[in-house]
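Model it.
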Amino acid sequence: MKRFIAILQFMTRIPINIDVGIDEDFHKSITYFPLVGFVLGILLFLVGTVSMKIFDPFITAIIITLSSVVLTGGLHIDGLGDTFDAIYSYRDKEKMLEIMKDSRLGTNSLLAIMFVMLLKIGFIYSIINQGFMWMIIFMPIIGRLGMIRLTYKTVSPRAKGMGNLFIGKSTTSMFITAITYTIAIIALISKLMFNSSTILLLKILISIVIVIIFNQMFKQHIYKKIDGVTGDILGCSVELGEVIYLLYIYLMIG
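Modeled.
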C-alpha cells in the first residue's frame, strides 16, 4: 500500500496528505502503474458522467481530456512535447538529449500536443455517442501498462534523470503481475458493472496486446535515435498509448 500511495503521488496531482517518501526500492512501484491508471480512469468516468448531465457529448469529451491533463499535472504531456521536439529535430544523439531537457516549446512539441489532444477529444466524443463512455476507464490503465514495456530490459542514455528511477528496473514478474491484474480489472468492470458480452470483453482485452506491440515498436524507433529511453519517452508512451487504445476502441465499435 505504501508503494502504491507513493507512485500515485508521483504520477498524479491527486491530493494525498500522507508522507511516504521515495526509498531505494521505489522502482518496485512499477507494478502499480496500471493501478494508478485505474484510479484516474474511475475519476475520468465520474467527471464524464456528471458532465453529461450538464453538457453535450462534445463538451464532455473536452472536459474528460482536460481532466486527464489536470489530474496528472501535465506530466506525460510534457514528455510528449519534449520527445517530439528532440527526436524529430534530426540532430545527433547528444543534441537530441539536450533539446529534450530544454523547457522551451518548439514547433514539433506544439504540433504533437495539439494533435494528440484533438485525437483524444474526437475519439472520446465518438465513443460517448456510441454509448460506451465506460470504456474510457480503461484508457489510462492500458496506457500505463504499455509504459512498463519501456522500463523492461531497457537502458537510459543519461547518467542522471527522473526516468532512471524506473528505466531498466522492471522485472518479468512485475510485468506479468501488472498484466494479470489489468485483465482482472477490465473483466470485472466490463462484466459486473456494465454487463458486457464475453465477445466484447475479449475485444477490449486485445487492446492490451496492441498497445504493448506499439510500445515495442516505439522503443525500437527511439533506440535508433538515442540508444535508450528517458523519462520524457516514458511520458510520451503513455499519451501515445492512450491514443492507440482510443483509436482501437473507435474502430471496434464503429
